[in-house]
Specification:
The protein contains 13 helices and 17 strands. With 335 residues, it is α+β, with helices and mostly antiparallel strands.
Amino acid sequence: YLMEKLLQLFTVNEAVEFFEANEIARPVTIRTNTLKTRRRDLAQALINRGVNLDPIGKWTKVGLTIFDSPVPVGATPEYMAGHYMIQAASSFLPVMALAPQENERVLDMSAAPGGKTTYCAALMKNTGLVVANDANREREKALVANIHRLGISNAVVCNYDGREFPKVMGGFDRVLLDAPCSGTGVISKDASVKTNKGPEDFSMLTNLQKELLLSAIDSVNADSPTGGYIVYSTCSVTVEEDEAVVNYALSKRPNIKLVDAKLDFGRPGFTSFRGRAFHSSLSLTRRFYPHTHNMDGFFVAKFKKLSNKVQVEENQFIVPAGSGVKLKQKKKRRN
């Protein structure tokens, strides 16, 4: 089933390259924790331990690729002290696209094990607030451990189904949704994806992704002086989990638009696929592939929320709960 899906996506030659790239293990990559050290100092400390490494690429100032190491990378004194996070290069991308600013309120809707949450906190220099949510309580143990190890002091961890979110808390400046997905971009890490995903898995996942994305959009305050942005990402390369979900959100929430994610590489998203036309702005989304970018398959889309009101009919608007509008009304009364 998956083979059929990927042959729709690539030419035969490229599909072969994609499968071959997935048979090779991705290089181990780490992200420097800039709250505690600089990449240059961290690289030197690890080289002194006999680690063979290089910067990941020009696109990141904090990433290092580990080629080989005489010591386990997850057990060095530098790791224990929180100087770095073992993190796939692809998962730097959604945080770079989100570009959280100091003193903002940010929600990471599906946060475990914490690579993106802790990257957000580092970019914000431990100011403001990062709400790290995950629906899986078991996975939150790693999330909490990483937050402590990396010295993050601006994070709050919670355990809700992301779809409940605007009701739980809203009015965020930025929301990151790295959605649960089929994992077709990370076959090299989990080969079972090749055989155990059928049509019913895809339809269940795409429904969940659509609901989560609408919740993420409704949790953002469009009137935020610095933000009003949502980033949607998946570690999948299938169109129905990527462009189709984004297109659905654009049709359901006319108060958002796609914006440039400011990622200098990656392929533009599809604006049409197998006879199905998507919104022309989908060319602003970005796709990443194992065989062309030497990282896990990944998809990133960035939205800007233009208004907290959603136009339902010609003269009828609704304000979804949680977008921060109620907060503003209370403030006005105080004056």
